[in-house]
Amino acid sequence: MAQSTTPQQHQDRTERIAALNDALRSNISNPQGHDRVVLTQGIGALIEDTPLRPFWFDQQALLKIVRTYADFSSENDPYGQRDFATFTFKDVRCFWKIDLYDPGLVKFALNGSFC
Q1: What are the angstrom distances between the C-alpha of 66 and each of 31, 37, 38, 85, 112?
Q2: Count of other CB atoms within 10 angstroms of residue 67
Q3: What's this model's pTM, rounded to 2 decimal places?
Q4: Which residue ranges of the chain lie beneath pLDDT 50?
């Protein structure tokens, strides 16, 4: 049987998840511990790698977009976890998303229970 949580417990968990997501985003160019950054093939296809524009130039620009994003609102962040946003890069609409996993990276932490 699932344990029910009080509204305050739910709010505390939401704030903890948001803080973890903010911590990852603020240090996204140098993830620590269990933090991982994954770029999809679609995003990878947007990254140029030429002698005049090495891959890291676009990669750092993308990470900066995620790191500096601060336009969260109840409309684009209804759960208050600051884990998703849209942006435009090279005229392409893109998304970033942060997912929480348990420390062993085994299962998705749907309720943030390990927080």
Answers
A1: 13, 11, 12, 8, 21
A2: 15
A3: 0.78
A4: 1
